[in-house]
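Protocol step 4 of 5: obtain the predicted structure for the target chain.
Materials: sequence only (see below). No template structures provided, no constraints applied. The aim of this step is simply to have a reference model before the mutagenesis design in step 5. Sequence pasted as it appears in the construct record:
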Amino acid sequence: MRQALTRRKTTMSPHHLWGFFCLISIQLVLAVASRGQSLTPQEGDFVVRDFGFKSGEKLPELRLHYMTLGTLARDAQGRATNAVIILHGTGGSGRQFLAPQFANMLFGGGQLLDTSRYYIILPDGIGHGRSSKPSDGLHTRFPQYDYDDMVAAQYRLVTEGLKVDHLRLVMGTSMGCMQSWMWGEAYPDFMDALMPLACLPVEIAGRNRMWRKMLMDAIRNDPEWKGGEYTTQPRAALRTAQDLLVIAGSAPLQGQKNYPTREAADKYVEDAGARSTSLDANDLLYQVNASRTYDPSAGLDKIKAPVMYVNSADDFINPPELGIAEREIKKVKNGRFVLLPISDLTRGHGTHTSAAAWQQYLDELLKGSAR
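Step 4 output (structure tokens):
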């Protein structure tokens, strides 16, 4: 197979990007000031020819968009020593990790993932960001990808596109958290450490599956969806989808503090409905449906790298009362699970991108996995 790799430097124009499980739209910039250090990512596309999906479908050209920060280092044998991949959540993109609550806490001089010391890889998963997705033109003729396909494509981007043969760290949030487990199982010798944030390493079932199915059904059952061949977005479906996303990403304590009156809460819901106009129905449908085959539970004992696994107690999607995280982490040879208590630092499911809430555990992981 032939691959093509192109790079281009980003401009510094701002973008509004939507994270699937976030309560609010975050203003992101492509250059973030952190402790006086300007973060100017390199940006590019890796194109895989005739990419084969697990479903048996093929795409003549699969475009994988990515950004990188820092410079790749190698040891005397030519092996990569400082590469870190950070995997985004459903509906997000690598660009979301340039938000201040993440980048300003981690990427600056002297910080845990200081870009003068680490080579940070921020890919857009299949169906997300600027990577190939249904809204590019194929609509529902786009291959029915799942997380296995997304992880396989990420691996090819890292190894074939960026020529990285080892990762210092695999970190992931939400969907990226789930894919972190899959990386650890599929490529157990490829990384020094794993940090999954905000997920469960089991099949998506129970309430988590129920609200996802409600969202997908809302899109498919909207007459304006037209089997995916709409010319204008199905408004009712996307409003329902946005409402479900608000609930899924909500944090009760912060919600009460930020919207303490009926009027304030109602206004937030109205504003959230207006934000649904930025969504694409087919892209969202595919993004949610990609989780349908996820279940790494049987292979957790294959993971060799140290694992620091963090959830928060106010996460609607991964509620602590299920006890699943505590049960499953016992299968991991060198794993630790941390449940963050509800506090002013937690933000429900979105705590995964608020580094102040969990950076101390990243520090422990990096120190404990140093070679």
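Step 4 remarks: The two ends are 35 Å apart (CA to CA). The first helix runs from residue 100 to 106.
Proceed to step 5.
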